[in-house]
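Dear Dr. L.,

I hope this message finds you well. Following up on our conversation about the binding site, I have prepared a predicted three-dimensional model of the protein together with nicotinamide-adenine-dinucleotide. For your records, I am including the exact sequence and ligand specification that went into the calculation, followed by the structure tokens. Please feel free to forward this to your student if that is useful.
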Amino acid sequence: MKAIFYSTKSVEKSLMLHANNQRHDLVFTTRTLSTETTSFAEGADAVVVFTNDNVTAPVIHKLAALGIRYIATRSVGIDHIDRVTAEKYEIKIANIPAYSPQAIAEHAAALALALSRHLVQASQQCQHFNFSLNNLIGFNFYGKTVGLIGLGHIGKAAIPIFKGLGCKIIGYDILPGQNLPDIEMVDLDALYKNADVISLHIPLNEQTEHIIDRTSIEKMKTGVMIINTARGSLIKTTDVLDALRTGKIGYLGLDVYENEHGLFFEDHEADQVRDPLLSELMRMPNVLITPHQAFLTTEALEEIAHQTINTLNSWEN
Ligand code: NAD
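The resulting structure of the complex is given below.
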């Protein structure tokens, strides 16, 4: 089948071609999918997107008019796709349910450790030959309580990592009956009350949007560390910013940001106007932001390519 890949990163293209082994006709563009770029899909059977492609009703309407029958996303999350509209046009949707949960769990741990030991500031100071220690006091993870919200593929992969650091691990998942080793399942309020570090591993949907807001933050320990490698809109950024200002939140590690669409995955260094909320967050020494890169390991990219081509194979069959 013919498939057009939107938002293709240079590193992905060769992996996709390798996995494809010349079976399908693949066309790549670095452009994001929008009502302005749907025409690139003319003549294709399938459209392959990523998290920054807004697959909204107007976009799907145009794709359907072009005869597109399939939309595959090279991601776990599907919050960027209007599934109801796709269903209306009988367009099939596929995601990648799990490609390398360890990649994301390890990135969450990397953010947490880098924050606790002030690694970014330390490195910046060292580069200026400033080897003083005054502002670099960290804390041990050993003995701390880590609260995992969401115990699917990624939440589960985070358990042995934090266990290995000597943490007590508590968790909450909407699905009851998770009988997992090395973790105590608790209700959400108990997690907020007891966790020194909270790491989010849930999908974005109507139920989870802004799950971290003023009300939930009030229930947390003063000085809590929050790590979000899941989706930006799980966090109400303005409320978190307020809590960072008062010290209620001690540390914040974000791989995803509420307003990242049209910003992340691209170089905006020359922009005259910059997102003020993000700029303020980045000025804080206890905030660490990465550009939605938790998935970006060789192993994960190979698996994404492999599973994307498998999806095209299944549809063709
Ligand atoms: P998963 O589907 O395997 O697990 C999600 C878990 O969340 C499930 O156990 C589910 O029961 C639970 N859940 C759903 N709604 C809940 C709620 N309201 N409260 C508590 N638990 C709830 O997904 P996963 O592979 O673990 O991925 C989790 C999320 O991470 C994805 O949805 C995606 O948004 C994000 N993600 C980010 C990156 C990145 O690069 N930053 C990469 C992959 C995935």
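In brief: The chain has a mean pLDDT of 97.

With kind regards,
A. P.
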